[in-house]
């Protein structure tokens, strides 16, 4: 464990002369930001049908809005932002990003046509690029390695709370007026949360001189691609996210079409069915993961691989469930096993990446994850659905895409034995890499 892993964050303790708030309060505030981060994504998925009806667009176009329009800039801009975050204030970067994505979420509600909505989704992606890598790096700075499983499990809950807001809250708000009101309300909520976080969270001090370190991106990329555990965690998680996000974004529409439900009822049913099991699964995984770190971080990847495999099988079963009650039944194992499988990978990445490389290394990993998970996945499902056509087109499209989660699990299983070796190598790289 390096010195950078030992940040003290008890109330009243200072770092660099600045009093830090309690780390669990910081985590709660980051969770609040993350909830709106995810809610702004799932909101569009919960309102697919009224948007299609107003603008007269296809499943392929809605897949474009849920995928590439949002995720291309979200993925690519995350790297330069993370490079800056490795030597600047992470909470300041998160704050600016949240203001940007919340503002564009509000602007989504003023879109006059589908292309203005697409432009607003691009703006949301630009803003959200400033959250993940700086936030994960900040969590790693506040929490020691034996606490990070629980900390990342808490952050993982944002997906489920975000789904509840997007799937259930969005259509419910839309019922008062139209789908535009939901975007305006959700964007305003994000602005309130980030104001509170900005007033409370403080940036922990880095090791002496680290704030001035500027890591050359191409040499770092070359070093990271030599580390087998880094590559396998990255692409294993990317395949798992592609599977889960594709189902997550198209799930409410699937429920509405398969069970002849209104979109409001479908979103509420889908969100509630997977949320509680997912929350329980994430918390259990975080608790178990912290205990397993005593026996090596490789055990966390084993747990991730098993969880992802079982969750993928359960999701495929839910896709073809004959009734809502049957789908809800399959949602229990899907949520329990799928709720926290990614926690082990987030913790594993922070474990092998030295402090000065964490935000940048995480962002590079997130690039592959987001290109597959958010760009390719939802868009591919829409294209396949239109191409297949017919009553079960969406079910068939999801059945093609969702099983890639099993491939991701296999990659995680293979990469589990190289964590300690690659951690040592990256510590050496961090010490020897020259400032430019």
Topology:
Blueprint: E1 14-15, E2 18-19, H1 23-46, H2 48-55, H3 59-66, H4 68-85, H5 90-108, H6 114-128, H7 132-142, H8 148-174, H9 179-200, H10 217-224, H11 228-258, H12 263-292, H13 298-319, H14 324-338, H15 343-352, H16 358-388, H17 393-401, H18 404-415, H19 419-432
Antiparallel strand pairs: 1-2
Helix pairs in contact: 1-5, 1-7, 1-8, 1-9, 1-11, 3-4, 3-16, 4-6, 4-16, 5-6, 5-7, 5-9, 7-16, 8-9, 8-12, 8-15, 11-12, 11-13, 11-15, 11-16, 11-17, 11-18, 12-14, 13-14, 13-15, 13-18, 16-17
**Low-confidence segments, ≥5 residues, pLDDT <50?**
1-16, 208-212
Global structural class: mainly alpha
> Treating each run of at least 4 consecutive H or I residues as one helix, how many helices?
19
Instruction: Give the averaged pLDDT, no decimals.
Output: 84
Q: Would you count the extended β strands for me?
A: 2
SS strand fraction? under 5%
Looking across the biggest beta sheet, what order are the strands in? 1-2
Radius of gyration: 21 Å
What's the CATH architecture?
Up-down Bundle
Number of domains: 1
Quote the distance from N terminus to C terminus. Answer: 27 Å
Helix-strand pattern: EEHHHHHHHHHHHHHHHHHHH
How would you characterize the largest beta sheet?
A: 2 strands, antiparallel
Helical fraction: over 70%
The CATH class is identified as Mainly Alpha
| Assigned CATH superfamily | MFS general substrate transporter like domains
Within the CATH hierarchy, at the fold level, what is the topology? Answer: Growth Hormone, Chain: A
Sum up the overall morphology in one term.
globular
């Amino acid at each position: 464990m390096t010195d950078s892993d030992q940040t003290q964050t008890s109330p009243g303790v200072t770092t660099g002369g600045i009093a830090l708030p309690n780390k669990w309060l910081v985590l709660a505030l980051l969770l609040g930001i993350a909830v709106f981060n995810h809610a702004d994504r799932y909101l569009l998925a919960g309102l697919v049908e009224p948007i299609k009806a107003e603008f007269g667009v296809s499943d392929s176009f809605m897949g474009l809005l849920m995928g590439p329009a949002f995720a291309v800039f979200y993925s690519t801009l995350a790297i330069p932002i993370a490079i800056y975050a490795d030597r600047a204030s992470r909470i300041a970067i998160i704050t600016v990003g949240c203001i940007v994505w919340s503002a564009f979420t509000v602007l989504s509600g003023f879109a006059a046509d589908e292309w203005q909505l697409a432009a607003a989704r691009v703006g949301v992606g630009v803003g959200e690029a400033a959250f993940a890598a700086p936030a994960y790096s900040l969590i790693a700075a506040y929490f020691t390695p034996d606490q990070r499983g629980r900390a990342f499990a808490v952050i993982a809950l944002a997906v489920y709370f975000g789904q509840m807001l997007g799937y259930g809250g969005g259509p419910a708000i839309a019922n008062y007026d139209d789908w535009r009101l939901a975007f305006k309300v959700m964007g305003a909520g994000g602005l309130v949360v980030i104001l509170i976080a900005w007033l409370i969270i403080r940036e922990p001090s880095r090791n002496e001189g680290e704030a001035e370190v500027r890591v050359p991106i191409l040499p770092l990329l070359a070093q990271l691609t030599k580390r087998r555990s880094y590559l396998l965690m990255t692409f294993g998680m990317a395949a798992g996210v592609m599977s889960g996000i594709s189902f997550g974004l198209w799930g409410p529409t699937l429920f509405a079409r398969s069970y002849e439900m209104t979109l409001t009822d479908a979103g509420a049913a889908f969100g509630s069915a997977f949320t509680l099991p997912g929350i329980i699964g994430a918390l259990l995984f975080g608790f178990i993961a912290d205990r397993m770190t005593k026996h090596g971080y490789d055990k966390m990847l084993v747990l991730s691989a098993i969880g992802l495999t079982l969750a993928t099988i359960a999701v495929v079963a839910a896709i073809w469930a004959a009734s809502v009650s049957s789908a809800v039944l399959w949602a229990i194992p899907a949520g329990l096993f799928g709720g926290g499988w990614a926690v082990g990978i987030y913790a594993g990445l922070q474990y092998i990446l030295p402090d000065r490389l964490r935000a940048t290394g995480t962002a590079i990993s997130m690039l592959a994850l987001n290109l597959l998970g958010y760009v390719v996945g939802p868009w591919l499902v829409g294209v396949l659905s239109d191409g297949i056509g017919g009553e079960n087109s969406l079910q068939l499209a999801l059945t093609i895409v969702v099983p890639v989660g099993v491939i991701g699990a296999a990659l995680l299983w293979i990469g589990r034995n190289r964590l300690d070796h690659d951690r040592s190598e990256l510590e050496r790289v961090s010490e020897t890499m020259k400032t430019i």
